[in-house]
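Appendix B. One record, verbatim.
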Amino acid sequence: MTASHPAADDDNASGDAKTAPDHSIWGVRSPALQALLLCILYFVAARISVHLTITPGGVSLLWLPNAVILSALLVSDVRRWPWMLAAVIPGELAADWGLISVQAALGFGVVNLCEVLLAAAVLRRLHGRAFSLERGRHVASFGIVALLIAPGLAALVGSAIHAAPDPDLHKFWSGWLAWWLGDATGLLVLTPALHALWSSRPRTDDAASLRSWQGVAVVGGMAVVTATIFLQRIGSPEQIVVSPILIVPLMLGIAARFGVAGATWAGFTVALVAVSASVNGLGPYASLGGARAILLVQEFVMLTALSGFVMAALLHEARRRGDRLRLFARAIDASDEGIAIADVRTGRPQRVFANRRYSRDANDFLDGDTRDAEAVARMRGAIADGRTAREIVHVRDDGGRDGWARMLLTPIHDGGSKATHYVVIEHDITDLIAAQRELFEAREALAAQNAELERRVAERTADLERLATTDSLTGIHNRRYLLERAKQEISRSKRGGRALSLAMLDLDRFKHINDRFGHAFGDTVLIGMCEVVSRVLRPSDTLARFGGEEFVLLLPDTDAEDALRVAERVREAVAGMCMQNPQQQPVAITASLGLSTLGDDANDLDQLLRNADEALYRAKGQGRNCVVAAEAASAG
């Protein structure tokens, strides 16, 4: 860079982990080849700046090469930055060869390198790799960092190097201003264009339209208009001059139609034509001469390019936000949920938006079915307090059919604690309510079936238990039941010191009856005998069939004496039975009984049964149809 060019702009590459980086620059991916390409581009831009924009006094009005390096840094991975920054020094030395000393060229190269590195690092830190010169916040950061801070700091060092041979404070500050404006203008008019070319981000509609014949024609027309204004040769102060201000509305129109890309290329065209013409003593500012003319040209170029660039960025941001809002609106309208927004600042909710699924026509979204009075009261209370509310209310569908909806009311605050609006989400739960009712009815039916099933199971269980403990022929208890009941009664008698007796009954000559009259008649005898004996016994007594024609009587709370009386009544009842055989002839039925009582010689069931069986055996031996007690049997 020559002594007159301002040290480029600050560089801060923005990296974003969400965006896959495209490391190519015009298809070149190798870091070494990219460095060579940037070195060539830097040299070309520097030679253009030196030969077209440098004044006879050595002041560069438009310094372009820093924009080349900054654009490359902003679109590349940080790991490639050393290769790209390495292109600055060789490019600077080649561009300044024969114009200034090698030491000065090295100094200017280092200043330019630090300028773009500072700008790239800060912008990358602020916005990551998502940096875009079409977004408002990013444009503001670019203006502050790359156009003000970085070139301003670089201008201090560069102006000091330039003024070192002949120190002069006025010369230093004049050089600083010229350096700063030249660097900032170069960064402004070229960085956005190169960033758009090299960025991996998809092209916008504006950038695409710029590449059409209309875009080329518009930029070419801007070049013609600028040339017409700045190629004027001013002969006298009275000469009528076409004002450069006419370029500003054209720039704003291009920015509105072609966006950031159009405004950038138009600004670059205006800057190149205006600056090169002014350097050669042409244009509306040439008659002023000296430093004032230089400053006015730089100010004009800076303000014209900046106005178009900022206008394009703001319009793009507005369109982007408008597109997002329209997308949100379409998404909300396509939702299966009813969604509305209500203004609650007046105290009475007034609907300001509703999508197609929202069912309530009234402006006051709380107006509805009178059946929802309690729910509406709770929602109004929540709105008054600025709280979230959830309620279930009645709704009607397009066919006028009743349904249900779950209403969710969420407040939107004004930045403080006061709610200005509410978002109302209406979720149709008619099918859910119907399903719940069906489920409830199904559960009720299932519960009834279960109850009926449990009743049947209980009955069946009781039947099974009865069958398990009942003799199928006579209907009285069987041996299994007797053994369980006898153990319980023996345990109870021992605990309470109570008496317990047991009698074993056997029908006399029952085998003879079976053989003579048949088993059917024998079964009738057994059934009749059980009925007769059961009528004689107490409810607490137990009669059980022990096997064949043998039966056992369990007599709780009965001592030996009482047991003898009970057994005698049983014997008499059996003997009094009137049974007729199949030939209708009377048949005498008698029974023998053996008694056993719980005591020292019989402390368990087995001993009681053995004693009773022995007593029964003795009764049979004594002629049958009699009662014999175990004690008497053992005594006899």
